[in-house]
Amino acid sequence: MRDAEALIDVRDEFIESTSRHPKFNSAHEGLAVAQEGFEELKAEVFKKASQRDPERLRTEAKHLAAMAIRFMVDCT
């Protein structure tokens, strides 16, 4: 995957997230959402290499990146 593609995917995920969900009510909520995304990515990474789904890894990383940007926008 090229850098530009990854950035576009994260941007699109961020835009979709902001259109479907209200702003985070607090930094605590933003952190909780980001942590949930991290835990989902971690669960995929910790699978045996033969059982990892590259598309799922990419999707979870995209969600985490988008939530980190939402935190920056909503909580700072």
What's the structural blueprint in terms of helices and strands?
Layout: H1 3-20, H2 27-45, H3 54-75
Description:
The protein is mostly helical and 76 residues long. The chain is built from three helices and no strands. The chain has one domain. The protein is globular and about 40 Å long.
- H/I helix tally: 3
- Provide the low-confidence segments as ranges: none
What global shape is seen? globular
Which strand-content bin applies to the residues? under 5%
End-to-end distance, in Å? 31 Å
- Provide the gyration radius in Å: 13 Å
- N to C succession of SSEs: HHH
What would you call the structural class?
mainly alpha
Total beta-strand segments: 0
> What fraction, in percent, of the residue positions are helical?
over 70%
Defining traits:
mainly alpha; 3 helices; globular
Concise structural overview:
This protein has helices at 3-20, 27-45, 54-75. The protein is mostly helical and 76 residues long. It has one domain (3-75).
